[in-house]
User: Fold this.
Amino acid sequence: MTSDSDSLKELSSIFNDRALKSSQRLLILICLSINRKLGFTELSKLTGLAKGSLGNHLLKLTLSGYIIVTEHSFFSSKRITIKITEKGILTIRKYLLAINELETTEKGEITSTTSADSDFN
Assistant:
């Protein structure tokens, strides 16, 4: 188990990455970490992002190496598929673990505070 300061340092390093300063980009990575790859339309529906906004976020994540975007011809239209990279998986895993560590620590403090308070009643 890591300490609070280790969890905070991990979160700090993730949030200092310019590509991850957006909650929408973190949401995109979380969606992709669960599904591994999604179509553009599916990802747009899951995140609630419009096409232009999603395209901008995907560009930043692609340039930072978190995802790979591929375009396929499908009959008379094109299909865009977004796949999370190993870097993206590792980063979002670190992010979620750090959040979980902080939440676990907080619950422990709340529980111990509640127990101490009940001794005085």
Remarks:
- The beta strands are 37-39, 67-74, 77-84.
- Residues 110-121 have pLDDT under 50 and may be disordered.
